[in-house]
Every structure is written in structure tokens, then in C-alpha cells.
């Protein structure tokens, strides 16, 4: 059944459609059907058999950048498990934002985002230009990793204050205008697990964490996000993740053997131990190495814990 709209609503939708055309995506050039209209933010869902054409136009437009973010406030697509690729207008807010569904081909939506930082286009992505760090390779690497987790920091009004480089874990400190909103968004992401300071294991794990910590589940390079209620935060990429899962309450489940043998020397020591024990020179990095194992050696009657200490050099 066709939607019945009053004259004022039709004008708002047409204005939004014209703005999208000005960004390089012309809905009048394809056949499409209006599916839903909403306010706060103002926008609409539509369906089209030419959704690939819509996505291609957004991909090649210099006025749009890829920005897979959730709709502000209540998001029916998120609640309905709709997976999408998103594009946001480059420049100052308010922006036009376009989403193209991936797991429901043909479904699209466009709406206006009224708040946020000034955005620039970097390698096809819409990224914040609010600070002098926006072009820093470490910042871009970490922000791009967060985007793959569907956590766009720029939506929460961040200002980067310090960047960390190898041999420390790559990342940055930041001030955030909406710490509670950022923490809520992190808690809702399946790949992130919470350090629960009410639990002994979580308290030990978060001993050097700023505020509330969220760690990406898995081993190898993994995101670690820290946000305090006073608006201070840090995000970095640990070289060795040691969270192997999370419980039904979202609390992290740790692999302590891997944490001591890999996370501790790779990620913690470089931040607290400096030259000459940890350093880098002409492409060569060095740091202490700790190995922990549990097993039975030849001639032993029972299994034992063993620790090995040394240095690791990376060329």
C-alpha cells in the first residue's frame, strides 16, 4: 500500500533526495519505491532493483565517504539485524547519510545526521578532520580498525591528545564529549568484551586501564578501548590479545597463560620499561621476552610450570 504523505513531508523528502543527487547519487535515474518515512533524524527507507548502481555511485563520489555507522537514537536496522555499508557526506554537519543493505539486497535508506565533526575523505573513508592528528598513519590505522568493528569514534566528539608508536602498542589518547554514549556503543558490539572490575580477574586485568575497558575477543592484534566517565580515553591495538570469549553478561574471559607469556611482554612492558631494555633503532626493535609453559619434562614424575626469560629482536 502506498504511503500517504502531507505536502510538508513530501517537500522534506524531495529536498533530501535533491541533496543526495548533488552528492552524486541520483534516485530519479532509477526505479525505486518508498517504504518508510521517519523523523529525528529525517529520512526514509526505499527499495530498488538497482541497489548495486546506488552503491557504485556512492563509492565513486568524491563528496561521500564510506562510514558504516548506526543511525542516531533508535535504529530499526540495527535492531532488525540489517547489515549494511554506509556513506556520509564530506564536510560540516548536517550531513546526508546513505545506507545500502548487504544481507537484504535492494533495501536502502537515506537520512540527515545533524551532529558530528567536520569530515574529510581519506582513501574512500569519511574520517574526522577535527584534530591535527587526522592524517597520522597510526590514527588512521586504529580508526580504520574500529570502523570494521562498527565503532566510529568521530560520532562521539573525540579530540586526540597524544599518539603512541612502536615499540609501544600503536594507538592514541583522546578526550570525548559523550563518554557514556561511547561506552554504551562499545558494550553493544559482539566482538568486544568488558573488563569487570567487580571480579578479581577483571580487576587485575584492568589494573593499568583508564576507566572502563573493552577488549576485542581473540588472539593476535586486537583492539583495546578505555573510556573514563570524565571524558578521558585511550584506544590502541594490542599485539597479543588474550581474551578468548565473554560470558552472557559481556564480561571478558581471559587466557592467563597467554596473557603472561605474550600480552605482558609484547604490550605492557614497552609502556613501562624503557631503554635500554625496550627500544627501536634503524628498523630493529627489541624487548624482554617471557615464556610460560605447563607440562612434564623427561624424567619428571608430574607436570610443572616453567618460565623462560630472554630478549626478542625483530628485524
Describe the 3D structure.
The protein has 315 residues and is of the alpha+beta class. Among the domains are: 129 residues, no CATH class; 49 residues, no CATH class. The protein is built from seven helices and 19 strands. A six-stranded antiparallel sheet has the order 1-2-6-5-4-3, with helices on one face. A six-stranded antiparallel sheet has the order 9-10-14-13-12-11, with helices on both faces. The longest helix is centred in the last third of the chain and has 17 residues. It starts with 6 loop residues before the first helix and ends with a strand. The mean pLDDT is 84.
Descriptive keywords:
single chain; 315 residues; alpha+beta; six-stranded antiparallel β-sheet; 7 helices; elongated
Helical stretch tally: 7
Low-confidence stretches: none
Strand percentage: 25-35%
Order of helices and strands: HEEHEHEEEEEHEEHEHEEEEEHEEE
Please report the distance between the alpha carbons of the first and last residues. 66 Å
Q: What is the average of the pLDDT values? A: 84
* Spatial strand order of the main sheet: 1-2-6-5-4-3
Q: Cα-atom Rg, whole angstroms?
A: 24 Å
| Helix percentage | 10-25%
In terms of structural class, how would the helical and strand content be classed?
alpha+beta
- Kindly state the number of beta strands: 19
What order do the helices and strands come in, and which of them pair?
Layout: H1 7-22, E1 33-38, E2 43-47, H2 51-60, E3 64-66, H3 76-79, E4 84-89, E5 95-101, E6 107-113, E7 119-122, E8 125-128, H4 137-148, E9 158-164, E10 171-176, H5 179-187, E11 192-194, H6 200-205, E12 212-216, E13 222-227, E14 232-238, E15 243-246, E16 252-254, H7 256-272, E17 279-281, E18 284-295, E19 304-314
Antiparallel strand pairs: 1-2, 2-6, 3-4, 4-5, 5-6, 7-8, 9-10, 10-14, 11-12, 12-13, 13-14, 15-16, 17-18, 18-19
Amino acid at each position: 500500500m502506498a504511503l500517504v504523505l502531507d505536502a510538508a513531508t513530501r517537500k522534506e523528502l524531495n529536498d533530501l533526495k535533491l541533496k543526495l543527487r548533488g552528492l552524486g547519487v541520483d534516485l530519479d535515474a532509477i526505479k525505486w519505491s518508498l517504504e518508510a518515512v521517519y523523523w529525528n533524524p529525517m529520512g526514509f527507507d526505499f527499495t530498488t532493483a538497482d541497489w548495486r548502481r546506488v552503491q557504485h555511485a556512492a563509492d565513486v563520489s568524491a563528496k561521500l565517504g564510506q562510514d558504516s555507522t548506526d543511525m542516531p537514537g533508535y535504529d530499526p536496522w540495527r535492531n532488525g539485524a540489517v547489515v549494511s555499508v554506509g556513506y556520509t557526506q564530506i564536510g560540516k554537519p548536517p550531513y546526508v547519510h546513505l545506507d545500502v543493505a548487504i544481507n537484504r539486497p535492494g533495501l536502502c535508506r537515506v537520512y540527515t545526521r545533524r551532529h558530528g565533526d567536520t569530515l574529510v575523505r581519506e582513501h574512500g573513508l569519511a574520517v574526522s578532520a577535527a584534530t591535527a592528528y587526522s592524517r597520522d598513519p597510526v590514527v588512521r590505522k586504529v580508526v580504520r580498525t574500529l570502523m570494521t568493528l562498527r565503532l566510529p569514534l568521530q560520532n562521539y566528539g573525540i579530540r586526540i591528545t597524544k599518539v603512541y608508536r612502536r615499540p609501544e602498542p600503536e594507538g592514541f589518547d583522546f578526550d570525548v564529549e559523550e563518554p557514556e554514549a561511547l561506552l554504551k556503543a562499545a558494550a553493544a558490539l559482539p566482538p568486544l568484551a568488558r573488563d569487570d572490575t567487580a571480579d578479581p580477574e577483571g580487576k587485575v586485568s584492568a589494573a593499568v586501564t583508564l576507566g572502563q575497558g573493552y577488549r576485542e575477543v581473540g588472539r593476535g592484534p586486537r583492539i583495546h578501548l578505555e573510556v573514563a566517565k570524565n571524558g578521558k580515553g585511550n584506544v590502541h591495538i594490542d599485539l597479543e590479545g588474550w581474551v578468548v570469549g565473554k560470558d552472557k553478561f559481556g564480561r571478558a574471559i581471559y587466557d592467563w597463560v597467554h596473557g603472561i607469556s605474550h600480552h605482558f611482554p609484547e604490550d605492557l612492558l614497552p609502556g613501562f620499561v624503557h631503554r635500554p631494555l625496550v627500544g627501536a633503532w634503524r628498523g630493529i626493535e627489541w624487548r624482554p621476552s617471557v615464556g610460560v609453559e605447563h607440562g612434564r619434562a623427561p624424567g619428571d614424575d608430574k607436570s610443572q610450570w616453567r618460565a623462560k626469560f630472554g630478549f626478542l629482536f625483530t628485524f
